[in-house]
Amino acid sequence: MKTTILYIEDNEQNLYLVTFLLNAKGYRVLQARDGREGIEMAGLHRPDLILLDIQLPGMDGYATAKHLRSNQAVADTPIVALTSYAMAGDREKAFEAGCTGYIEKPINPGTFLAQVEEHLKGRAFDGGAP
Questions:
Q1: Half-sphere exposure of residue 108: CA atoms within 13 angstroms, side-chain side
Q2: How many folded domains does the chain comprise?
Q3: What pTM, to 2 d.p., does this model score?
Q4: Residue 127 — pLDDT band, cuts 50, 70, 90?
Q5: What Cα–Cα distance (Å) separates residue 72 from each residue in 9, 22, 65, 116?
């Protein structure tokens, strides 16, 4: 079974680029376009990693992260904020909400996969790519 990454993102261009890069590396990518859909998909599919945009319609990424942390099915799943929020305090706010990592947009395609893999280290997998 492939390593599964859930990407919660409402911007189509970002969704396409990140999904393309992850698929090319052999990851299975699930897509959710808002926080509520992401919470539902996370509980249903139990991904190995969640990439979470902060600026989401309806429920923002901070609230989404808090909901994910309260869901026993994914409470221990790494959540990485993947966001253009880069002001002082934004990183800390993401960690306080329950994120375990933070990657700033725009992403660098040359280093992005290494950043993602850093957050997957130590996770137990059933084999498959990667």
A1: 6
A2: 1
A3: 0.93
A4: very low
A5: 23, 26, 13, 23
One-letter amino acid at 51 equals L
What tokens were used for 88?
């002082």
Q: How do residues 7-22 score in pLDDT, each as one tens digit?
A: 999 999 999 999 999 9
Please give the residue range of the domain that contains residue 109.
4-120
116 has a pLDDT exceeding 80: yes
| CATH code assigned at 79 | 3.40.50.2300
In this structure, the number of other CB atoms found within 10 A of the CB of residue 121 comes to 7
**DSSP single-letter state for residue 38:** H
Question: Would 70 be classed as within a structural domain?
Answer: yes
User: Of 110, 106, 103, 108, which is closest to residue 5 (Cα–Cα)?
Assistant: 103
